[in-house]
UniProtKB/TrEMBL annotation:
Its EC number is 5.2.1.8. PPIases accelerate the folding of proteins. It catalyzes the cis-trans isomerization of proline imidic peptide bonds in oligopeptides. Pfam families: Pro_isomerase. It comes from Solitalea canadensis (strain ATCC 29591 / DSM 3403 / JCM 21819 / LMG 8368 / NBRC 15130 / NCIMB 12057 / USAM 9D). This is peptidylprolyl isomerase. It is an enzyme of class 5 (isomerase). Residues 27-205 form the PPIase cyclophilin-type domain.
């Protein structure tokens, strides 16, 4: 009964989002994950679609996996920052943030990675899936106090029943969510890793647009 209730809550969060125009498939060596890109973040949606079409994520890897937190894919921070350091003539390229209060870090959300730039602008070639964990009222109260930000009641309920990483809200652009294959994302987030959070066995993925 409990599992049924949680499933209904998860489906409810999906249905609460208006029908979106683009779905992207992550074809991994552990199974497929289908992700609905938000029309509420059109610039990130279009940027990501462009990246898929150009093959920027061809044979990419989930190269930083932290259990119950996130599974990060694409280029690592060090790879991007070292390239920029070695080629200053190319400049530092970031994508303007599209942070929306209604799009939050619930389990299954797709976010854009970034460095610590003040504009909170995104990398072009790094994404992450939110794994997170269920949060208690006490934990959510503490996050609200620390960040001086009220968590809306509906988001609070999701964090309590489904899980996520609420302390990332407001700092990173969330631009999509998993609509199929959440169990695959969970399996990826549970793979053994080394001390640097790198999977001991490569988790490779390719991307394709399956609906537009």
């Amino acid at each position: 009964m409990k599992k049924t209730i949680l499933l209904l809550l998860f489906i409810g969060t999906l249905l609460s989002v208006k029908a979106q125009s683009v779905t992207v498939r992550f074809s991994t060596n552990m199974g497929n994950i289908d992700v609905m890109l938000y029309d509420e973040t059109p610039k990130h949606r279009d940027m990501f679609v462009k990246a898929v079409k150009k093959g920027w994520y061809k044979n990419a890897q989930f190269n930083r996996v932290i259990a119950n937190f996130v599974s990060q894919g694409g280029e690592l921070d060090d790879t991007i920052l070292n390239r920029e350091k070695q080629h200053p003539e190319l400049g530092v390229k970031r994508f303007p943030a599209e942070i929306k209060a209604s799009l939050f870090h619930k389990k299954g959300a797709l976010g854009a990675g970034r460095d610590d730039n003040h504009e909170k602008a995104s990398y072009f070639t790094q994404i992450y899936f939110v794994a997170g964990k269920k949060r208690s009222d006490e934990e959510l109260d503490a996050i609200e106090k620390k960040r001086n930000r009220k968590i809306p009641a509906d988001q609070r309920e999701v964090y309590k029943t489904i899980g996520g990483t609420p302390h990332l809200d407001g700092d990173y652009t969330v631009f999509g969510e998993i609509v199929s294959g959440l169990e695959v994302a969970d399996a990826i987030n549970a793979v053994p890793t080394d001390k640097n959070d790198v999977p001991l066995k490569s988790v490779v993925f390719n991307l394709s647009i399956i609906r537009k």
